[in-house]
Design goal:
Distance between the termini: 37 Å
Helix content: 10-25%
Oligomer: single chain
Number of domains: 1
Strand content: over 45%
Radius of gyration: 24 Å
Order of helices and strands: HEEEEEEEEHEEEEEE
Largest sheet: 8 strands, antiparallel, barrel
Number of strands: 14
Strand order of the largest sheet: 1-4-5-7-8-10-11-14
Length: 224
């Protein structure tokens, strides 16, 4: 009888240990892979003189393969680091130059570190969360088009080029984790980055842009 009780106790202890390892408890590390879509909600200033009054720009959306690493500080608090390929955004004429087409493109890596609070119990199948992140947006590989040169007085021999300031921004986030097996899960989130930057042209002109993109990220993850 004592032997049976000991075996039953060991089995329960092992089951409890396995359950803890598979739940989102303190010390748990998880990774995920999926897609992220960034849709800038552009509010452009006017291109500095010399230019037509009301010369503005708009910024197109972009989607890229992304993922992330998550570490549970406690059963409810977590640090989350999204990672992925750079996003490629195109710039278009707007305002007084609406209709001139594509002015250029840039690649951007929006590096963000989130602090998240996850609701419900650690072993719950569905856990909504709120997050707040600090984002550093690095712009690189800027390309310009003949349309930009035409608008700003560039020539084929001396085309107008552009550079964009790297900037910090604040990024609130809302999302959820759905655990569809012991270790595999779906992570989906919406977040909004508040970022303002300035583009500088080789012509000596500049233009301020408030990007403030809406971001949707979806990934399939594995919990260690």
């Amino acid at each position: 009888m004592n032997k049976q009780l000991l075996q039953a106790g060991c089995a329960l202890a092992l089951a409890a240990a396995c359950g803890a390892a598979q739940a989102q408890v303190a010390g748990t590390i998880s990774v995920r892979a999926g897609f992220t879509h960034i849709a800038p909600q552009t509010k452009s200033g006017d291109l500095s003189e010399p230019s037509f009054p009301g010369t503005k720009v708009d910024v197109g959306s972009a989607t890229a393969l992304t993922g992330g690493i998550n570490y549970m500080l406690t059963d409810h608090w977590a640090l989350d680091l999204p990672i992925g390929l750079p996003f490629k955004h195109s710039f278009y004429g707007d305002g007084a130059i609406d209709g001139v087409g594509k002015l250029g493109q840039t690649k951007v890596v929006p590096a963000t570190l989130f602090l998240q609070y996850r609701f419900a119990e650690a072993n719950a199948k569905f856990r909504p969360y709120l997050g707040l992140g600090l984002t550093y947006s690095k712009f690189f590989k800027n390309r310009s088009t003949a349309a930009l040169s035409a608008v700003t007085g560039g020539t084929p021999a001396n085309p107008t080029t552009a550079s964009i300031d790297n900037k910090w921004g604040v990024t609130p986030q809302v999302g959820f984790v759905w655990n569809f097996s012991d270790r595999w899960f779906l992570d989906a989130a919406y977040f909004k980055s508040f970022i303002k930057t300035t583009a500088h042209l080789s012509s000596g002109q500049s233009i301020d842009m408030r990007l403030n993109p809406d971001v949707i990220a979806i990934g399939i993850g594995y919990r260690f």
